[in-house]
Amino acid sequence: MSNLPSEPEFEQAYKELASTLENSTLFEKHPEYKKALQVAAIPERIIQFRVTWENDKGEVQANRGFRVQYNSALGPYKGGLRFHPTVNLSILKFLGFEQVFKNALTGLSMGGGKGGADFDPKGKSDNEIRKFCVSFMRELNKHIGADTDVPAGDIGVSPREIGWMFGAYRAEKNKWEGVLTGKGGNWGGSLIRPEATGYGLVYYVQHMIQYASGGKESFQGKRVAISGSGNVAQYAALKVIELGGTVISLSDSKGALIATDEKGITPDLVNFVADLKVKRKQLSELAESSEYKQKFKYIEGERPWVHVEKVDVALPSATQNEVSGDEGKKLIELGCKFIAEGSNMGCTQEAIDEFEKVRKEKKGEAIWYAPGKAANAGGVAVSGLEMAQNSQRLKWTSEEVDDKLKGIMKQCFENCLSTAKEYVPTSDGEFPSLVAGGNIAGFSKVAAAMKDQGDWW
């Protein structure tokens, strides 16, 4: 990859996967998989296009649109669309690369991809965002389809934007098909889809807690620090509370909200936060309100990790690289026993190295880390279930979808665990490496499918 321009986010994701494969016995047992890694690191296709649209003043605006169709060995490309000014090929390649192996871990028939545009929805009117979505889909529709590539939402793309893009796709193609997931509930969307990533994250960690405690513990009584305040963070918080835990933090791009009383963040407060997000307001408004200012402190420009006094579980759920090496050390000092990524690549490599070092040194008393490609796979899993419902022209109940989600997250955890035990030697009392298990299990499944189909040999 030395002949390519620098792509720091993608290079980080590639090195994180490659290093765990190299430090396991996978290449000893399957030396041919080294070639598979070289092939799998290159996207099958990258599409870049111009998006022109008209603002409310009648002025023509131009943005860059992208779709990285990374790997289709296991099924149609599947992954979100992100509308954010920071979107570039490095970020989309990192997200698409991670998505390939995350989707493999769900056990569903999905390949991996990612896309979006460097369009910033903030400060735009609803009419401007709608116009952008229609213009974006006029080009993207040429490259996607129910059996080719099925995008979903991501940062800046809510069910509202999915609706506008689906309408544009339907008009261009003159057919209704399950080409986008995250659709409205009364026209093809799946129940539990908005909740799925947050719920799935908590279900995964619940298995970690039960395994580590020999079945004696759960979220009951645990203090849980969460970053972010969007969809993933909100529903993770609600599920933690439902299971008996206390949520002690949330955050946004401007700072961290820390609970100062024993009750922590309540369901009513999560609903208040959700309303703020819809109105595109900051968490600082909550901390300054007369109703809540005695119960919380808002620390501007900070993330929550070093400001929570005691923590049992940490769930980074905002964006990539939001837990640094120093913050990882602080979480360990504060007594954190479990950390799982609700965001993609939420921890820096330095933080992961700290967690893995302590896992080996302190064994059963250590912090136990779960990577996003396993822990936050619930969202894309229910997207896959939405695809199945669309194909059958059926709609499952909330209970049916939630039960399937629980089963997928259980299978995902057990797959990571057993694969780590098989390929990464551990000493007595040491937790298996879930990051290695997730990487090896996801990669091996994709590599085997690619070999069967002649992508490498």
Automatic annotation (TrEMBL):
One of its GO terms (molecular function) is nucleotide binding. Substrate binds at K78, Q99, K102, G153, S383. CDD domains: NAD_bind_2_Glu_DH. InterPro entries: Aminoacid_DH-like_N_sf, Glu/Leu/Phe/Val/Trp_DH, Glu/Leu/Phe/Val/Trp_DH_C, Glu/Leu/Phe/Val/Trp_DH_dimer, Glu/Leu/Phe/Val_DH_AS, Glu_DH, Glu_Leu_Phe_Val_DH, NAD(P)-bd_dom_sf. Keywords: NAD, NADP, Nucleotide-binding, Oxidoreductase. The keyword Ubl conjugation does not apply. Residues 190-454 form the Glutamate/phenylalanine/leucine/valine/L-tryptophan dehydrogenase C-terminal domain. GO terms for cellular component: cytosol. NAD(+) binds at T197, N231. The keyword Lipoprotein does not apply. GO terms for biological process: glutamate biosynthetic process. It catalyses: L-glutamate + NADP(+) + H2O = 2-oxoglutarate + NH4(+) + NADPH + H(+). The record marks D154 as: Important for catalysis. It comes from the Eukaryota. The active site is at K114. Homohexamer. Belongs to the Glu/Leu/Phe/Val dehydrogenases family. This is Glutamate dehydrogenase. It comes from Recurvomyces mirabilis. The lineage of its organism: Eukaryota, Fungi, Dikarya, Ascomycota, Pezizomycotina.
